[in-house]
Amino acid sequence: VVLNINAGTFDASIRTITLSGKGKPFVIGGSGTFYDSTSTIKYTGTGALTNVAATTYKNLQILPTAATTYQFAGGSTTTVEGTWTVTGSAGQVVTLQSSDGTDWNINPTAWAVDYVSVSHSNNQAGSKILPTNSTNGGNNTNWFDGISIAGTSNSSGTVWLAFNGVVQAATGAIAAGVWSIADVVVSLGDIITAWI
Question: Residue 132, SS3?
């Protein structure tokens, strides 16, 4: 099923609408308006690429049956007034990424996110999205818990970190030969350099 709203208002009411197409299964264009009411929009398409419409949803589900990449337009905001659900599985990870390398915004009220690889996303919710069985693809804001990086030194001073050659704002003071920097969010493949 593909849903194109090019004119008028489509009231989704209390429906669950399953969009199984790939490419652009949900398009709001021209003078079209989407009213989410208490509906659930469910993306189930599989394939190389599926674009998610940037709009306000009551409930948004991304539930493909195979590994699939879902793109959000760079700079766009997708708002979910209810629950945002993204579910992949072992060996069938759902990739959530930007269409152009510019951060995309997600603003969910509640969420359940499992088996994803996410990149270039800015979570606008009040707390971090902590997806299970997932990979931080990098350049994300308000996603994933950080780790503590610690070490010992026989000198004094401040320890600085760089990820892939980019100096980070967080630092750690050496006290009694020990230093620690908390809540550091790293991405798969990052090269971390620490120095005094």
Answer: strand
**Mapped to the 3 state alphabet, what secondary structure does the chain carry?**
CCEEECCCEEECCCCEEEECCCECCEEECCCCEEECCCCEEEECCCCCCEECCCCEECEEEECCCCCEEEEECCCCEEEEEEEEEEECECCECEEEEECCCCCEEEEEEEEEEECEEEECEEECCCCCECCECCEEEECCECECCCEEEEEECCCCCEEEEEECCEEEEEEEECECCEEEEEEECCCCCCCEEEEC
CB 20, CB 44: distance < 8 Å:
yes
Summarize pLDDT for 104-114 with one digit per residue, the tens: 999 999 999 99
- What DSSP line would sit under 144-165, residue for residue? S--EEEEEE-SS-SEEEEEETT
CA dist., res. 2 & res. 183, Å (int): 42
pTM of the full predicted structure?
A: 0.79
User: Do 38 and 13 meet the contact criterion of CB atoms below 8 Å apart?
Assistant: yes
Structure tokens at 83: 């629950």
**Residues 64-104: tens digit of each pLDDT:** 989 999 999 999 999 999 999 999 999 999 999 999 999 99
